[in-house]
Amino acid sequence: MSRMQFEIIARDKKTKARIFKFKTIKTPFFMPVATKATGKFYDSNDMKKIKVKAIIANALLLSLEPSAAVIKSLGGIHRFMNFKGIIFTDSGGFQMYSEHLFLGINENGIRFRNPFTGQRILCTPEKDMQIQLDIASDVAMCLDDMPLYPAKKERLIQSVKRTIAWAIRCKRYHDKHNNINQLLFGIVQGGTDNSLRKICAKKLSTLKFPGYAIGGLAIGEPENLMWQATKVTLKYIPEKTPKYLMGLGKPYQLLKAISLGIDIFDSRYPTKTARHNQVFTFSDGTLKLQRKIYKDDKNPIDKTCNCPVCQNYSRAYLHHLIKIKEPNVKRLLSLHNLYFYQRLMEKAQESIPESIDHIINIFLPSHIMQVMDTIIENSKDPHLVEKARLNKMTWSYKSGRKI
Amino acid sequence: MSRMQFEIIARDKKTKARIFKFKTIKTPFFMPVATKATGKFYDSNDMKKIKVKAIIANALLLSLEPSAAVIKSLGGIHRFMNFKGIIFTDSGGFQMYSEHLFLGINENGIRFRNPFTGQRILCTPEKDMQIQLDIASDVAMCLDDMPLYPAKKERLIQSVKRTIAWAIRCKRYHDKHNNINQLLFGIVQGGTDNSLRKICAKKLSTLKFPGYAIGGLAIGEPENLMWQATKVTLKYIPEKTPKYLMGLGKPYQLLKAISLGIDIFDSRYPTKTARHNQVFTFSDGTLKLQRKIYKDDKNPIDKTCNCPVCQNYSRAYLHHLIKIKEPNVKRLLSLHNLYFYQRLMEKAQESIPESIDHIINIFLPSHIMQVMDTIIENSKDPHLVEKARLNKMTWSYKSGRKI
Predict the structure, then answer these.
(1) CA nearest neighbour of A30 among A329, A282, A265
(2) What separation in angstroms does the CA of B392 have from each of A103, B253, B367?
(3) What's the CA gap between A373 and A390, in Å, rounded?
(4) The pLDDT value given to residue B212
């Protein structure tokens, strides 16, 4: 039974955090985004070197280019992109976000325009399942209807109804045609509406998916509403299945979500920030390497880090690459940040048998520092800036950390 | 004595090809261009993996950003960019080509504009030597005056006079301040004018440089004139010193130059072509990977190649990366092409004790094929295209190679 593939092997003493074993890997894990079967600015060989264990690709986009048929003929996505870890495929529901692709939606499916050929295509739950089976990922995701934020109640109701109806169709088709032992996860929608989250979660629970994703969050809603919606959803889906909070996020958010019972993550955040020259460290918080202070800084990004970037280059050299606009620096900083995320997940795994609270407390100050820095840099209200400066000093003092 | 650092260890039986030993490496060698202390789209760690043994950086450009002082304070260019092989630095004479940088020239030196600060700077032979000593490359190049092609006789005469005068000033300064055992190579100018090449070569010979470069070629002049100028120059500089033909070139050109007595090369050609999706192979000639025929081609670029790209990815996957405009494919194809150049130099070294003629004969057909392909694709003269097609068939038949 595919449902048994995720097995709980440890639980946190103080929070809802836990560790699942799944094939060769353990939760909590973070998946770099490899939408089109590649990282952006880095390749599968790089991912192997920074010990990435799982990634998420996008079924819809791969069906447009190079096509599910080509990937199938080349032996599936693992072979195609030469990645031996776990591969999730997202369905394409998220691409409703793309003005470039999205045409419309009705009960039957989602209409997209193929940007390579101009052709209109209708993505139905059944077609989407077949694409994911052809691509042969390890975990497929149901086709869902994801409204943008903010959405009216009416639109959210429609989305939940459709997401449930499509989940049923996906499950039926997938059960019938799954001859590759692929897992299918359900996706709970409902925006930040607690009652709709509850309805959607309860209904999908009856379908007994081997894992559940929480979709439609981390798309611009206030953070407190996101946590509320997450908690409600978690309450109404089977506790003993792995939970995937789609699209999250920042280091501190990952730790908090783990403490609530989330096991799996994906986000563009670490690579998007890297492409803007921002890097995460355990030694010195977040650094912006374009800053002049790094021009002759002999240190690696993070002296506690074993990634191929910290092992080879100084902050001064990376600063130089940024200054001369060498495109490859986007690759180097992406690799460092992804390695940081892997280490963060390792630290979470190591702490769970005792309690993840401890490492959250380490991260809380750096998270707050980051928020304060954003205010200091961007706010035009001198009063607010002054308050942020004071706040920063207080936290710095409390935590004994360098600013 | 620094002049003895290059030692001849083998000579070709039929041509003027030879093998020098220099520190840990052997000639003939090819230097990827790392103008600003980095490859374009690839890093030093990549170069280590594809066994690049020598590179050339640019003293003038590095003195603008991050500055010779910063590189010196970080322990020299080897440490700065983390490259343990041989590093040549070009002087900056070549940047007279850059409309963006070049302001003017007189007997005292070359005037440039620093694009980072807008500041005007005067690059004198003495300053240029000090920059290269601060950067601490293994081989420094004299500051030369390189006219664009085509140039009038008058301009060539001026260039030769100035190049000689500056070589004297460079040598004097370098001899006095060289406390890092850096070698200084002279550069012979003279365009495609045989008598001027002779004058320049003879005069520089009297200065007893440990090695000589042939500059001002491979800049758009007809190929036969380039070979003629090369031969004349070689005739008038000491045979037992290493010779560096700056800016060459294509695989076949490298082999031909080696047979004439050239030992060292640098060129953007392998990486520039890679960035345009063109790759070199020993198995199938030159491939343009954007072509539709590669969409589901399971083979690596070259099945005889051990580079990290051929070891990991299929032509189909690389074609996909090109199709979706993934920037990292420029890195992958650059690595393959540079590895191809390393292999080409290895093959040359292996053949020299017998004769390099053999591998030139292997390459001649593929070189001709490439020329014919260019005609077939670009010419609007149907008669010429037909002739190229016939020529291609004949060569294909003669050499027993696939078209």
Answers:
(1) A265
(2) 49, 19, 11
(3) 11
(4) 98
> Which residues of B are annotated as catalytic?
90, 266
CATH number for A201: 3.20.20.105
Mean pLDDT check: name the lowest of A283-292, B247-256, B275-284, B370-379: B370-379
What residues of A act catalytically?
90, 266
Q: How far apart are CA B32 and CA B273, in angstroms?
A: 13
CA angle A345, A1, A353 (to 5 degrees): 30
CB-nearest partner of B296 from A70, A324, A327: A70
Same domain, B368 and B310: no
What is the predicted pLDDT for the residue at A284?
Answer: 83
Give Cβ neighbours of residue A69 (< 8 Å, ≥ 6 apart): A134
List residues bridging with A265 in a β-sheet. Answer: A30, A245
pLDDT digits (tens, 9 = 90+) for A179-199: 999 999 999 999 999 999 999
Q: What number of C-beta contacts closer than 8 Å exist between A and B?
A: 112
| B366 within a domain of the structure (yes/no) | yes
Whether A361 and A351 share a structural domain: no
Best CA proximity match to B146, nearest among B190, B112, B111: B190
**Strand (E) or helix (H) holding B317:** helix B315-323
- Average pLDDT in the B94-100 region? 87
- Per-residue confidence (pLDDT) for residue B283, from 0 to 100: 83
Amino acid B185 reads F
pLDDT at B380: 87
Cβ under 8 Å to A: B residues 10-39: 36-39
pLDDT digit string (tens) for A79-137?
999 999 999 999 998 888 888 899 999 999 999 999 889 999 999 999 999 999 999 99
Provide the residue range defining the domain that includes A349.
275-355
CB contact, 8 Å: B43 with chain A? yes
Cα separation, A375 vs B58, in Å, equals: 42
What pLDDT is recorded for position B2? 46
Q: Which residue has the higher pLDDT, A363 or A61?
A: A61
For residue A318, give the nearest of A286, A295, A341 by alpha carbon. A295
ipTM associated with this complex:
0.94
A328 → closest Cβ in B37, B38, B316:
B38
Q: Is the separation of the CB atoms in B174 and B129 below 8 Å? A: yes
Separation of first and last alpha carbons in chain B: 51
* Separation between Cα atoms, residue A239 and residue A235, nearest integer Å: 8
